[in-house]
Amino acid sequence: MIQILPANEKSCYQDIIKLIYDTDPFIYSAMCDNDYVYFEQIMSIYLQQGSIFSYKNILLAIENDKIIGLILSFTKKQSLPSNNGNRQCTIDTIKNYFQVLHEKLNSDERYINNLCVDELHRKKGVANALLTELVSKSKESRIVLYCLEDNKNAINLYIKCGFKQGKSFEGFAGNSSETVKCCEYIYDGSLKATKP
């Protein structure tokens, strides 16, 4: 049985960091210049801070004492990381992606930065359960997320869960030369998803 629980300092940070890294092929690879060991080091610091990446912003999906998914969300009230590491790639990604995103948020919005499920546990209702729990616990009137336009599985899930499509835009491609097309999805009504 899947349990949805808040993360804390006792949660396995390596599993959390790995899921976050695997969520997006552009943002996190740019943040660490494709150096996963460095990414793990900087994120282990961020998890401890009161920033947008802190444990308090993460809900975990757990099955048989193993983290199989997570959702990381934050509000405008939460700050950007105070330590941007010692690499220009981290400083640039925080400034050019996370700071821009943070500034766009309204005070009554919650932003879903990561929704990720371990590859072996996909299509089993884990993402649905995480979204359902987040919406039920959120105090904000709107929940916003950005999704790659070609990520049809994710888009179908968001629509099933009551998110409405917003504007399309060119997304952050990090250190990639390709163009990234994204779309905004907004939740501001009753969640239609069913618990798994």
DSSP helical segment count: 6
**Strand order across the biggest sheet?**
1-2-3-4-5-7-6
Number of strands: 7
Query: Quaternary arrangement of the chains shown?
Result: single chain
Structural class: alpha+beta
Rounded radius of gyration (Å): 16 Å
* Percent in strands: 25-35%
* Sheet with most strands: 7 strands, mixed
Order of helices and strands: EHHHEEHEHEHEE
What is the average of the pLDDT values?
Answer: 90
Q: What percent of residues adopt helix (DSSP H or I)?
A: 25-40%
The appropriate CATH architecture of the domain at 3-78 and 88-143 is 3-Layer(aba) Sandwich
Write down the CATH class of the domain at 3-78 and 88-143: Alpha Beta
Q: Which overall shape is indicated by the principal axes computed on the Cα atoms?
A: globular
CATH superfamily of the domain at 3-78 and 88-143: Gcn5-related N-acetyltransferase (GNAT)
Task: Give an account of the 3D structure.
This protein is of the alpha+beta class and 196 residues long. The protein has a domain of 132 residues: Aminopeptidase, CATH 3.40.630.30. 35% of the residues lie in helices and 26% in strands. The protein contains six helices and seven strands; from the N terminus they run E-H-H-H-E-E-H-E-H-E-H-E-E. A seven-stranded mixed beta sheet has the order 1-2-3-4-5-7-6, sandwiched between helices. Helix 5 links the parallel strand 4 and strand 5. It starts with a strand and ends in a 9-residue tail after the last strand. The relative contact order is 0.16. The C terminus is likely disordered.
